[in-house]
């Protein structure tokens, strides 16, 4: 597995459980995609979060965030955090229940308050793992839509307008209510990226829920002190959606190809030059990739298609979980680093 290292951006790499070194220097956080859920913890001096995303040890892995700077950690109002003076990782969990809007609103509100208190005002990326994502809550509202309602209310209460929402993932999990983690920066400039072939998620019509999902298609986070050509692009979970509609329902191979096409356009020259980012990226530049596949039997076909486009050196994890819309079979996310990063 290749390791991403950069002087001033938190590097993330996947590690199998037997490769994991919790005492390695300057660990900002370890996110365990594993066979059970647990509340976020900082007892080892870094953030640790166990998310129930694996059916067994064979598909369990850890995402390790490292930094070149000393790390401080703590907990406040149920949100655990670790930071290095430039970047912050924080995490929370909403326990299983009959509904999630109020719990999400409260947990997100506490997270946004904590970011402000610690001085990390630039929210680059959020990951949300929603158990029973396509099932209904006690009031008959799909749990994903219930989560989106609570998130939108928290963002509004904290004047987080659509132009400052982060890249995100909102994906199913195998248990444990709703878990989330967040990456924010203190001085690195953030540029949200939208895909000209998709309606911005925060503009989705009400047919997808009472409040739209609040996220950007990607965010570019620049290296503090360097020009905008130096940075990382955090690509949100991306699926077979054009405009605001799902395409190729029931055809996982066509959905995989369209999701890849959406990401290629998002990180390609037309989009980046439109946002005045002097980087040129292709799917071969994507790394720390997660591919979420609804039906386990579809994973070999999805993997075959993806491997035709990804670098052989890329870190790729395939996870068998539900996707945010019942007619979506596959979704992918990743990170692009600019070639000129030290
Ligand atoms: C796949 C989509 O949305 C998914 C849900 C997200 C969320 O609610 O945060 C973010 C990206 C995807 O994981 C999409 O709407 O295109």
Topology diagram in text:
Blueprint: E1 11-15, E2 27-34, E3 38-41, E4 47-52, E5 61-66, E6 72-76, E7 79-83, E8 87-94, H1 101-118, E9 122-131, H2 143-157, E10 167-173, E11 178-185, E12 190-193, E13 218-222, E14 231-238, E15 241-242, E16 245-246, H3 252-266, H4 269-274, E17 286-293, H5 299-307, E18 316-320, E19 330-337
Parallel strand pairs: 2-4, 9-10, 17-18
Antiparallel strand pairs: 1-5, 2-5, 3-4, 6-7, 7-8, 8-11, 9-11, 12-13, 13-14, 14-19, 15-16, 17-19
Helix pairs in contact: 1-2, 3-5
The structure holds ligand ISJ.
Protein name: Chorismatase
Domain Chorismatase FkbO/Hyg5-like N-terminal: 63-184
Binding site for substrate: 144, 151, 204, 217
Give a short synopsis of this structure.
The protein is an alpha+beta fold and 342 residues long.
Write up what this structure looks like.
The active site is at residue 331. InterPro entries: Chori_FkbO_Hyg5, FkbO_Hyg5-like_N, RutC-like_sf. Residues 63-184 form the Chorismatase FkbO/Hyg5-like N-terminal domain. With 342 residues, the chain is of the alpha+beta class. It has one domain: RutC-like (60s Ribosomal Protein L30, Chain: A, 2-Layer Sandwich), CATH 3.30.1330. Helix content is 18%, strand content 33%. It contains 5 helices and 19 strands. The protein has helices at residues 101-118, 143-157, 252-266, 269-274, 299-307, and strands at 11-15, 27-34, 38-41, 47-52, 61-66, 72-76, 79-83, 87-94, 122-131, 167-173, 178-185, 190-193, 218-222, 231-238, 241-242, 245-246, 286-293, 316-320, 330-337. The strands form 4 sheets. Strands 6-7-8-11-9-10 form a 6-stranded mixed β-sheet, with helices on one face. It has a 6-stranded mixed β-sheet with strand order 12-13-14-19-17-18, covered by helices on one side. A 5-stranded mixed β-sheet has the order 1-5-2-4-3, with no helix packed on it. Helix 1 runs parallel beside helix 2 (143-157) and helix 3 (252-266) packs parallel to helix 5. The radius of gyration is 18 Å and the shape is globular. The model is unreliable at 1-7 (pLDDT under 50). The protein binds the ligand C=C(O[C@@H]1C=C(C(=O)O)C=C[C@H]1O)C(=O)O. The site of the ligand C=C(O[C@@H]1C=C(C(=O)O)C=C[C@H]1O)C(=O)O has 14 residues, from strand 10 and strand 14.
